[in-house]
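This week, study the protein below.
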Amino acid sequence: MLSLPIAFSSAIGVFAPVFSRPVWQHVKVLMTGAVLAPGQRTVTAILRIMGLGAAPNFQTYHRVLNRAVWSPLHASRLLLRLLEAVWKQSLYKVRSYAIGRARPRTDLLDNRSLAMLLEISKRLIY
């Protein structure tokens, strides 16, 4: 069984309801490997970086994407909610930074642009 740091497991744990329990174990390995894999993030590259390149159940991880029953639409909705929550937290930090230094940061997209991107994404997904 894969042991993950608490911060990472809570971040990807949002997606657990999308998958069945046996499939979720494989998804955790794939998501962790996708974060760690340099270059292309193919299933093969992910499994190699996770040390499972010669595992006897190698094909099981491929089946997660093409045979397992899960809803990409449901997963995308959860991802959008997660991104929205992170954006709101970062927006709060940017506002407090701007007030504290009396000078707004210019290295981030402005608030209207980010709000518009989130609104467009919601319309596409819902």
